[in-house]
Amino acid sequence: MIDAIPSFSGPNLALAQATVATLGVVVMIGVAFLDRPHRSTLLWSIAFLIAMISSWGIVLAETVDSEAMRRVSIGVLMGAPGFIWAGFRTLRGAGSRWWLAALLSAISPVLLVAAGATEAYSVVFRIVFFLSAVFAFLLLVEWLRLPDRGDTVLYPLVVISVLNAALAAFVAVAGLIFPASSGDDLQFVRSVNQLGFVIYMVCALVSLVGFATRRERLISRDARTPWEDFLTGCRDRLVRAARRGEHSWALLVFRLDDEADVRDAVGVAGFAAVCEGFAQAIREALPADADIAERRPGTVVVLVSRPEPVLRAALRGALARVGRMENAGGMEIQVSASVGWIAVDPGDVVGGEDDLEALLERAEAAADSARAAGGDRWERVGV
User: Fold this and answer.
1) Are residues 140 and 31 in the same domain?
2) According to the model, what pLDDT value does residue 227 have?
3) Given strand 291-296, what is the order of strands in its sheet?
4) Which residues pair with 293 in a beta bridge?
């Protein structure tokens, strides 16, 4: 099918992959894990360690011309993206499920070696490659759950994960429509995968090291983020309020309008300044006893107990303060905000931890509705 396309695999490409993987291990462990010891950086370091070992195995296989060793090394490599996904799961306190990645690294070599002939090997290779890319897709799901998913340092990893998942889907479908007719066809597919993995490792290294070193949440294994402290404090306050029979509580989500346009206008550093001023304006406008935290850049969450008329006046003041922010981000731009307002009955929330998260999602949806209606306003919903 693709006999006319020259193969670009071989010792040189394998050596390049091994070199990048080795550099990744040194940087990830030396810069990320040792400086920010955490389950996430540990799992990311393991991912690069697996990539390094398997890559040098491929180099050795190319040198001695051992197909069995080459297949074992490729199989072990397939589980590496899974450890990156597992690391992201730990950032939100979920179980890492690293054993899924380890299982793929253990089973893939056995399947690839046992496949034998070119036809069977082609099918098995495409299957394990697809399973490896599933972890890239799941990583995107975890990225969407991050409070600070707008951090641009993660964009290289996000983009390459999308491309990796798309490539695996294409290879799987192409294998069904155009089965490998020769060893050259399969060699080309394997070469594309090898080159793609080099690019994947570079993007992952840039994103993960940058993300780890810029996040205080990764200082120690037992460290808690300000957001986690905020949620814990809110639940404690609502428990006490339920015992006293209080009902006039509200959960507010402030979201910066036209967030993407503001970021493009002022740049990354300027947008950080805008978000800082945005949060400060909200703190100054709301009661001093309100619980306030930044969920992600451009989104501030508030838990407050006030009668509705008082809260409406406070919201008008907060939106006015945001609108009067001067020289935001170092440029003359006008900013505004939208608010999702949901009434909270403490007695309904203390029944479980997921109740507060559900209220947050509804409040964010209300803020989205307010923004869709033109922004610079609030949208109120009941419990």
Assistant:
1) yes
2) 76
3) 291-296, 299-305, 249-256, 337-344, 377-381
4) 301
